[in-house]
Amino acid sequence: MRIYENIYLIPSFVNCYLIERGDYCILIDTGTLKKARKIIHNIQTNFPEKPLEAIFITHAHLDHTAGLKTLGQLYGSKIISHEKEKPYIMKSEKMPARDGFIGKTFSIFSNLLSGTEYPVDQIVTDGEVIYGLKVYHLPGHTPGTIALEDLETRALFCGDIIDCNKKGDTILPPKKLFAMDYDQALKSSIKMLQASKPSAIFPGHGKPITEPDAAIKLYLEEYS
Ligand SMILES: [Zn+2]
Ligand SMILES: [Zn+2]
Q: Phi and psi (nearest 5°) for 201?
């Protein structure tokens, strides 16, 4: 479903985004295995002649990475993440424990709920621009979470460093239960919104917000 300029949303409980470029397309997060089939269908329907050149992974949690192997193998795409997230995506290291008692208990499952053992080809650093996307390194939800700002449209792909509500008019703080370090994640979300001037907010969960100025102002007033 085309939602904004050259951006396509593949929705469900986790959002993935396809960006159509000149002669290729790129993907931000793969979602679940079932979602990978929807992404393939989307590419075949909308731009079958454009290969999936690169897949950006905002962070290693399984709801964002489970389809990685299927898509990576099918298209031979370049897999891109932050250096700090790479070992968790590839499952060569265990994801650190989450915040608080519930988080620590829940984190028994955190390694199970992260990564796919699929190789990351390229690492990116804070401030780097790649495929027209500016990288923000925003630790807290996980160590190597990134957000990506499309310099052409100023659309901001946020992963799980913020959420949006179901109506698509309010930015919500990162979920405490799933954050490795909630305070750090909150700081990262503020940093991201202060450093960027997005024309649209595309979250990992919740409804995207176009014309987000009022929602950003409200969020910064409440949490910074
Ligand atoms: Zn997450
Ligand atoms: Zn998520």
A: -110, 120
From first to last of its 224 residues, the chain has per-residue pLDDT tens of: 898 889 999 988 899 999 999 999 999 999 988 999 999 999 999 999 999 999 999 999 999 999 999 999 999 999 999 999 999 999 988 888 776 555 566 655 666 778 888 999 999 999 999 999 999 999 999 999 999 999 999 999 999 999 999 999 999 999 988 888 999 999 999 999 999 999 999 999 999 999 999 999 999 999 99
**Global confidence as pTM:** 0.95
Task: List the structure tokens of 130.
Answer: 């790649």
14 alpha carbon – ligand 1 mean position (Å): 10
Q: Which ligand has the shortest distance to the CA of 110?
A: 1
* Nearest ligand (C-alpha, residue 13): 2
- Residues, CB-to-ion distance under 5 Å, ligand 1: 61, 160
Q: Based on the structure, what is the number of domains in the chain?
A: 1
∠ CA(207), CA(152), CA(32), 5° rounding? 40
62: CA distance to ligand 2 center in Å?
8
65 neighbors 99 (Cβ within 8 angstroms): no
Q: Which helix (H) or strand (E) holds 202?
A: strand 200-203
Q: Looking at residue 124, which CATH number applies to its domain?
A: 3.60.15.10
Ligand 2 centroid to 53 CA: how many Å?
Answer: 23
Ligand 1 geometric centre to CA of 109 (Å): 13
**DSSP letter at 107?**
G
- Residue 28 lies in domain: 2-223
